[in-house]
């Protein structure tokens, strides 16, 4: 397999899926300039690898159509090929389409041209086989996956979508309708004021080890009606700022962070709300960190997270909504740490199903305005974080070995699981280090079985995605 390819392998079954260029494909060098990339794409045959030198690649203001299996990548990690549309009144896009197309983009900087009206896009249309976006930079770009319907009413959508190791920036840029039929993998990315919205096209979604910064909603997962559908949101950092502009009043503004529907697992995440790096003034109307379930359907496991509010000086006594965590569907809420929350209530269970069937156990609540009285084994002591960056527990923390005792899910040393983001076999830092600058090892992420991490024989059921970095 090529050095720049992708492997998804199952340790349980040793099945192997390779998303990479054809081994017989030609490597074509592309020089910077006006429409040199467009010409290269038009002239390429399926399976070719277009290697871009450092420099600027301008595109005339028409959609760039990729309807064949191609890889477009930088010549090496030191190069930053910059791609943008030259300008005009229409809104151009890079469009990936065509039956059985496999497309890889790696090491490219795709950004909004100064004279382009509105934001350019990257669109994935119809019955595509796979798309992989790796180690790219995107600025002021919108993304969307489209489902297509043929004359007989059959619906088609991309089989596999892998987005790993990229940076996305641009105030109010969006991922619209993201997802895939088989696997959607979104891992090791940095999102600065870019929202991720999943439309559950398929059975699996893995959102692992990303860094989110935004002043409004960061993550929305729409309900998935497919049998066996599952979303895993694991070891991410979510940081919500009060304003994206210096000196702006936030009076009566309402801040929400994420909405999760369907079934899934939300574990080992850091959720911080109310940061104020831009010197916002005024008193926000309300905060809400998480809402689970737009209806009573669905189930989410919420475990080993840290929920921390930084806005204790900005509390409105009459907020529009009064809880930090709002549950309409059933949840299992265990081994979490909740601190410095300013809402009158920590939890709101607004349906009979969430009230009757939800489980709250072995959580630590400290210095909150509201209480955590739903918990069966509540700890109300200072968690003793070493710092409030990675939220590692200091020696003597009451959160050490304080989790729900489950023989199938312990810390790596075999002890009872710790509370917070470093508890369990796959702690937060294992994934955060993938984003460390100048890291040269491959991106590597485990993809767990949705309903059980252990087989009947005791073997761990896990797949993995490994992405080679540019050198």
Can you tag this structure with a few keywords?
471 residues, mainly beta, 13-stranded parallel beta sheet, 3 helices, 41% strand
In angstroms, what is the radius of gyration? 23 Å
Give the overall shape.
globular
Would you report the number of β strands? Answer: 41
Oligomer kind: single chain
Give the N-terminus to C-terminus distance in angstroms. 16 Å
- Helix count? 3
Q: What percent of residues adopt helix (DSSP H or I)?
A: under 10%
Largest sheet: 22 strands, parallel
- Estimate the mean pLDDT confidence: 86
Helix-strand makeup class: mainly beta
**Uncertain regions spanning at least 5 consecutive residues:** 1-22
Strand content: 35-45%
Task: Describe the protein.
With 471 residues, the protein is mainly beta. The chain has three helices and 41 strands. The chain has a 22-stranded parallel β-sheet that branches. A 13-stranded parallel β-sheet has the order 3-5-8-11-14-19-21-23-26-29-32-35-38. The protein has a four-stranded antiparallel β-sheet with strand order 2-1-41-40, with no helix packed on it. Strand 17 (148-149) and strand 18 (155-156) form a beta hairpin. Mean pLDDT is 86; it is low at 1-22.
Summarize the helices and strands and which ones pair or pack.
Layout: E1 6-10, E2 16-19, E3 27-30, E4 33-34, H1 36-43, E5 49-52, E6 55-59, E7 64-66, E8 70-74, E9 81-85, E10 93-96, E11 102-106, E12 109-111, E13 121-125, E14 130-134, E15 137-139, E16 142-146, E17 148-149, E18 155-156, E19 160-164, E20 167-178, E21 183-187, E22 190-198, E23 204-208, E24 211-214, E25 219-221, E26 230-234, E27 237-241, E28 254-260, E29 263-267, E30 270-275, E31 286-292, E32 299-303, E33 306-309, E34 323-327, E35 330-334, E36 337-339, E37 345-349, H2 352-357, E38 359-361, E39 364-366, H3 428-432, E40 443-448, E41 462-467
Parallel strand pairs: 3-5, 4-6, 5-8, 6-9, 7-10, 8-11, 9-12, 10-13, 11-14, 12-15, 13-16, 14-19, 15-20, 16-20, 19-21, 20-22, 21-23, 22-24, 22-25, 23-26, 24-27, 25-28, 26-29, 27-30, 28-31, 29-32, 30-33, 31-34, 32-35, 33-36, 34-37, 35-38, 36-39
Antiparallel strand pairs: 1-2, 1-41, 17-18, 40-41
């Amino acid at each position: 397999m090529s050095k720049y390819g992708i492997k998804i392998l199952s340790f349980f079954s040793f099945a192997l899926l390779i998303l990479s260029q054809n081994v017989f494909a030609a490597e074509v060098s592309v020089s910077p300039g006006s429409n040199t990339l467009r010409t290269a794409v038009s002239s390429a045959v399926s399976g070719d690898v277009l290697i871009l030198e450092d420099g600027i690649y301008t595109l005339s203001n028409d959609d760039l159509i990729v309807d064949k299996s191609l890889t477009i990548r930088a010549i090496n990690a030191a190069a930053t090929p910059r791609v943008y549309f030259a300008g005009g009144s229409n809104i151009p896009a890079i469009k990936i389409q065509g039956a059985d197309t496999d497309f890889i983009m790696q090491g490219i900087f795709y950004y909004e041209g100064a004279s382009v009206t509105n934001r350019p896009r990257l669109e994935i249309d119809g019955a595509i086989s796979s798309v992989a976006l790796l180690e790219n930079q995107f600025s002021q770009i919108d993304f969307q996956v489209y489902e297509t319907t043929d004359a007989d009413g059959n619906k088609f959508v991309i089989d596999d979508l892998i987005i790993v190791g990229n940076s996305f920036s641009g105030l109010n840029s969006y991922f619209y309708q993201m997802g895939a039929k088989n696997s959607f993998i979104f891992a090791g990315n940095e999102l600065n004021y870019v929202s991720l919205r999943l439309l559950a096209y398929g059975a699996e979604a893995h959102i692992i080890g990303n860094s989110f910064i935004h002043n409004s909603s960061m993550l929305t997962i729409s309900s998935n009606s497919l049998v066996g559908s599952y979303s895993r949101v694991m070891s991410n950092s979510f940081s919500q700022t009060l304003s994206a502009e210096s000196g702006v009043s936030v009076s009566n503004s309402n801040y929400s962070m994420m909405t999760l529907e369907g079934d899934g697992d939300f574990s080992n995440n850091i959720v911080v709300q109310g940061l104020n790096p831009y010197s916002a003034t005024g008193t926000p109307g309300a905060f809400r960190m998480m809402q689970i379930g737009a209806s009573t359907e669905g189930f989410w496991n919420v475990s080993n997270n840290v929920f921390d509010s930084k806005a204790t000086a900005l509390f409105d006594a009459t907020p529009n909504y009064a809880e930090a965590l709002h549950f309409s569907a059933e949840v299992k809420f265990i081994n979490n740490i909740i601190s410095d929350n300013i809402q009158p209530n920590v939890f709101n269970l607004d349906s009979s199903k969430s009230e009757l069937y939800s489980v709250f156990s072995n959580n630590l609540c400290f210095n909150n305005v509201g209480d955590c009285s739903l918990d069966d084994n509540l700890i109300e002591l200072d968690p003793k974080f070493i710092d409030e960056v990675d939220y590692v527990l200091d020696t003597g923390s009451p959160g050490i070995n304080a989790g729900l005792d489950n023989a199938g899910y312990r810390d790596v040393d075999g002890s009872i699981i710790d509370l917070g983001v470093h508890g369990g076999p796959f702690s937060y830092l294992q994934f955060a280090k993938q984003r460390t600058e100048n890291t040269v090892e491959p991106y590597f992420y485990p993809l767990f079985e949705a309903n059980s991490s252990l087989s009947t024989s005791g073997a761990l059921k896990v797949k993995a995605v490994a992405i080679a970095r540019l050198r």
